[in-house]
Amino acid sequence: MISFDKINPTSEIQSALNLSTSDSVFKLVRLRYVDTAPIVEVTTYIPTKLVPDLNKIDFSQASLYDELRKRNLPVTHVTRKLEVKKASSTISKTLKIKENDPVFYFHSYGDTKKDQKIEYSIATYRGDLNSFIIDLNIN
């Protein structure tokens, strides 16, 4: 875990989570590793009105999705938008890659079983250590 704060959401976050200007969100920034290599930086936004006690959880030890399930707010549907970008100087330092190296850039929108917007995440994955399989069922 890099940081965990309560913030006022930007218009982008408000739109993603169907929030008003008076709402606040928890901002959780995590860096995930495989062995000693950092592979993804994830910034997640959660509406404080849905989980006001989330700031009491130690996310260096706990799973966000497990904590949401415990509160009867499981993420049951996720929509992701994928882009391939060039690593900025900041993300290149964080992920220990060269500036302008390719990275996978995901925007994820998580909903509960009641179609509540519960999560908005932005994840940046190293292009050299990650791959993705996309499996579509067409009816």
Automatic annotation (TrEMBL):
The record's Gene3D superfamilies line, in alphabetical order, gives: Chorismate lyase-like
Which biological process annotations from GO are given for this protein?
negative regulation of DNA-templated transcription
Judging by the UniProt lineage, the source's domain of life is Bacteria
Q: Which SUPFAM superfamilies match?
A: Chorismate lyase-like (SSF64288)
- Which GO MF terms are attached to this record? DNA binding
- InterPro entries membership: Bact_HTH_transcr_reg (IPR050679), Chorismate_lyase_/UTRA_dom_sf (IPR028978), UTRA (IPR011663)
Annotated ranges, domain UbiC transcription regulator-associated: 1-131
Q: What is this protein called?
A: UbiC transcription regulator-associated domain protein
